[in-house]
Amino acid sequence: MIASLSGPVLSSGAGWAVIGVGGLGMRVELPSGRVSQAAVGEHLMVHTSLIVREDSLTLFGFGSEDELEVFGHLIGVNGVGPRSALGVLSALTPAEIASAVVAEDEKVFRKVSGIGPKTSKLIVISLAGKLQAIAHTQSADTPRDDASAHATAVRDGLMGLGYHEQAAAGAVEDALAAGAPTDHAGLLRAALALLQAARGGSR
Q1: Short-list 165, 198, 197, 172, CA closest to 187
Q2: What residue ranges do the domains of the chain occupy?
Q3: What are the residue ranges in the chain where pLDDT is below 50?
Q4: Superfamily of domain 4-62
Q5: What was the pLDDT predicted at 111?
Q6: 65-140: what CATH class?
Q7: pTM score, two decimals?
Q8: CB atoms within 10 A of CB 126
């Protein structure tokens, strides 16, 4: 089981990236508009789910463990395949999905391409009680916007690359204070640059 991938982006496009790992190029399908913004040459870490079909092996990657968890629950819903689940996570954050399920608001899922009224209801019914941890975490925190969600994902990604939590969190904070972009890809590049500069200066 491939649980995660970490390495330089060799090529990328809308909803996918090829990550270099040990001399191999591993193609990973990604939520559009999130970690899929990775630029060629950028170091990327994603949590993965390997979907095995009779005629294919497909890796789906996510910037956070919450996204991976929600993906696992979504593909367990009757009528929701991996591509549809990826579409849901491209349009909604795990917190938004959890909130919609708790509120039994199926209309939220109808906004996703390929998800109709019947499937929307099934998602709400099937995921009921399964996303309480995510919903609780979000409600316990102050309201989180996309910028703070990206900051957390970037910190986790840097830790996955081997940086200590304190160093990773500090680099993210310093990058934001310096005016770095708040999207995942831009913030990751800026934080990595700070960490690499600090490492070089300590030699």
Answers
A1: 172
A2: 4-62, 65-140, 146-201
A3: 36, 139-144
A4: Nucleic acid-binding proteins (2.40.50.140)
A5: 86
A6: mainly alpha
A7: 0.66
A8: 18
Position 91: which residue type?
Answer: A
Q: CA–CA separation, 31 vs 62, rounded Å?
A: 7
- Chain-centroid distance of CA 46 in Å reads 7
Alpha carbon distance 37, 44 (integer Å): 10
Q: What pLDDT was estimated at residue 136? A: 60
SS (H, E, C) the chain: CCCEEEEEEEEEECCEEEEEECCEEEEEECCCCCHHHCCCCCEEEEEEEEEEECCEEEEEEECCHHHHHHHHHHCCCCCCCHHHHHHHHHHCCHHHHHHHHHCCCCHHHHCCCCCCHHHHHHHHHHHCCCCHHHHHHHHHCCCCCHHHHHHHHHHHHHHHCCCCHHHHHHHHHHHHHCCCCCCHHHHHHHHHHHHHHHHHHCC
Q: Which two tokens stand for residue 97?
A: 């999905």
- Ramachandran category for residue 36: left, alpha or beta (phi over 0 → left; psi -120 to 50 → alpha): alpha
